[in-house]
Design a protein that fits this description.
By secondary structure, this protein is mostly helical. It is built from 10 helices and no strands.
Length: 218
């Protein structure tokens, strides 16, 4: 709702920009921020009970934490679907240039390429707390926005979703619409970007689960 309201206020009186603004604010800032906060609150609730559920259930800590990661993945997917519906409906009423089919594909691509943030944010929130987690989240988001339009987009994992969504949403990470013939609309980056994101997710998940499983819960 914050995303929809923010886009409406910032684009009031303008045409062909509402859905673009919704998606742009969502994947460059609000989605990572939302996920960071949810991960932190989830771990904070575990700490309040002194990890009671992890210590009393017969299921291993690794499996329980993997369940938390899967749940967070569903949160991302559901949130992206809500954004798709709201942006599409608002774009229909207020005019938009975002392709409906491209926006639908974006729901799946954005979900797959943001999964790596879950184990990273869970670790940061458990180890350092919300302030450090949000600062690192902001750094990754800003860095991704800067690097995504360049040829080095694959070097920073946070830049990958911002880069591969351009051909589907027809907007740059800074919110400016792309014109036909712009090299950033090249679809050749999509498959490599998805593969890199999945590799990062698997790597970060394994590291986090191993760290948490060996950690002594007090």
């Amino acid at each position: 709702m914050i995303t929809f309201a923010l886009a409406f206020v910032l684009t009031l009186g303008m045409t062909n920009v509402y859905a673009e603004s919704v998606w742009n604010w969502w994947y460059t800032l609000l989605l990572p921020g939302m996920l960071a906060i949810i991960c932190c609150l989830s771990m904070k609730q575990e700490k309040k009970t002194n990890y009671y559920h992890l210590m009393t259930l017969s299921t291993s800590k690794r499996k329980l934490m993997m369940g938390k990661i899967i749940y967070m993945g569903y949160v991302i997917l559901t949130s992206n679907m809500i954004i798709f519906v709201g942006a599409s409906l608002g774009g229909f009423l207020l005019t938009t240039r975002v392709p409906l089919g491209g926006a639908a594909i974006t729901v799946l691509l954005l979900t797959a390429t943001q999964l790596w943030e879950i184990p990273v944010f869970l670790f940061l929130s458990e180890r350092f707390g919300m302030i450090v987690e949000l600062l690192i989240c902001l750094f990754l988001t800003v860095g991704g926005t800067i690097i995504a339009p360049t040829g080095k987009w694959y070097l920073l994992v946070s830049a990958i979703p911002m880069r591969i969504l351009c051909p589907f949403l027809h907007i740059l990470p800074n919110g400016i619409p792309t014109e036909a013939g712009n090299p950033i609309l090249d679809m050749g980056v999509v498959v490599p970007g998805i593969c890199l994101s999945i590799i990062w997710f698997v790597f970060a998940t394994i590291l986090f689960l191993n760290w948490f499983d060996k950690r002594e819960v007090k």
